[in-house]
Amino acid sequence: MAASHHQQRKLRLTCLFLLILLVIGSGTAQGQVVGDGYNNSLIYKIQSDTNTVYILGSIHVLAEEYYPLTRSFSYAYYNSQKVIFEIDPDILFSSDSFTKYEKQYTFRNGQTLETVLSPKTYALVKQKIQAIGGNIQDFQPYKPWVLYLTLSGRLDSSIDFRPELGIENHFYRMAKDAGKPTGGLETIQDQLNVFDTLPINIQDALLQESLTASGSKEREQAFFHMVKDWHQGNLNGLEQLVESFKTYPLFYKKLLVQRNQNWIPQIESLLQEEKNVMIIVGAAHLAGKDGLLALLTEKGHHIERVSYARP
Question: At 95, which helix (H) or strand (E)?
């Protein structure tokens, strides 16, 4: 029983990291598969004097209906000798991830979920947990941002979206099978810090908003629109999603702005390598004036969209 409990908690932690990648979390939505071709992929390339770096905007959870991917994805992958993710999956799925980071997402100072949350938010959390057959006492050690990610990602629809069908997992499996090296733009600690350094009042506000009837519906609609825009290669649509994060300026800064800025030097370093590289990041990181595409353009790099030109 002890081993089983440990494995269940480790699985929850792995899912938590995957949810952090997406922010909106996993869910389900009606999808319409686009035909094969170069017309709907958020894939860009930068050519340096020594190599080509492909930047792929991804969705971290998908359904079987979205496969096979269009030819642009395959071209970028097979023309690259290394695959870089937000977090290197070899580290993300390492055996010590659970024990190493448990202190990051649980209280260590005698506080509990009930003592830090406002009465209204706590009541919403309790109601949500009871609705899915859980016990609120099992969640007392977890910080509010953990509940924000795990509870607000539960949507209802007829198609199952799962992390194992996400773009990252798809190409990680391919890279492992082919023996291609992988890497990451940041560490697990970096991603946990995005949420763990948010003041409790902001964690409370995010959690409360996501669990109200109107907030839950808005998140569901946002998820549907995000998947649709990604699937249609609509970067302008994703910019609207990015704008929505600005409701909480500090959250927006930590989630997108600072991380994008931190990744630029690493991308430029990859442009100095001799072999081609494919970088896979959440699609929201590409959009807007603070997005990777805009930042790289400001640095003088010429960016070409693979899906709108023959590779």
Answer: none
